[in-house]
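Protocol step 4 of 6: structure prediction from sequence.
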Amino acid sequence: MTGVVIRKVVDFVEDTLVEGGKPAARPLRMAACAAVIRSPWGSAYVEDLQPGIHAHAAILGDLLVPRLVALMGGPEGIEAFGKAAVVGTSGEIEHAAGLIHTLHFGNLYRTGAGADSFLPFTNKRAGAGTAITIPMTHKMQDSKGARSHFLTMEFTIPDAPAPDEIVVALGAASGGRVHERIGDRFKDMAFMGVDQAGRPLDPWKA
């Protein structure tokens, strides 16, 4: 295992002003910050990934979180969030997963975004120029059923990840989809009288 080597940091920002031919009442900003790093594990099988995770995760969080929050105009500008990691072709998917599925990384983003919810994610292995896909949901646990904030953003880095690299990315959105109108999962449950598994709701808990 070697020290943290960051080759580049990439920002991606898009502002949607018109959707379906209709101007947005409020433009929707989606942004991502990604770090391209040399994998601490290379191509060899490593039994204990924790030392590499501990050496990298917090450093990546400290780098990406303030940068992304600034792109969004502060934590109040973030309503939905997510994360992603892509390991190059010489690595394991476990390497990508290890760097984002740790509280040493995720908690830094939750704190910086003023959030309390689970971060949706993707982790995969691919070559340079692959699509980096970040699924997003509402940042607050009490609003996780808001389908308006079921979002996906996607971007590419033409030269990353190289075979021995990992791309680690965070994404954010300033609101829900422009002109959202498909309803709320919790309202559906109340209307149908069932929970999300299809079981009848307990009337005493309603």
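Step 5 (inspection) to follow. Residues 50-71 form the longest helix (22 residues).
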